[in-house]
Structure prediction request, 109 residues.
Amino acid sequence: MPIPGSDEAQQKRMARVMSDIMIKMTSRLAEKMAPVMADTFTEAELEAIVAFYEGPAGKSLLDKTPEISAKLAPAMREITPEMFAEVAARRCEIITCPPKDAPATEGKP
Prediction:
């Protein structure tokens, strides 16, 4: 899905930016995942996971992740607004939301 008002070069540049950001966020998430993984998996399971990532298929997956991320960026741009809209609607099923025409109160939804 093209970005409105952008040319092909700008879209490619944005795809690279999105890929870089996803890699950075994935790295940050991985840091937080380590203790969770250690609490969830046995030592043998963790060793098998490491073996996978050190093997050819795991290395290929890691090497191709930036390309995959760039290719998925348009889908993410398309899906994300829908996802947030659904989250907002479901939130209002659980928590009473103000009417749409009510003025927003600072610090409150």
Q: What stands out?
A: The mean pLDDT is 83. The radius of gyration is 20 Å. Residues 56-94 form the longest helix (39 residues). Residues 84 and 90 are 10 Å apart (CA to CA).
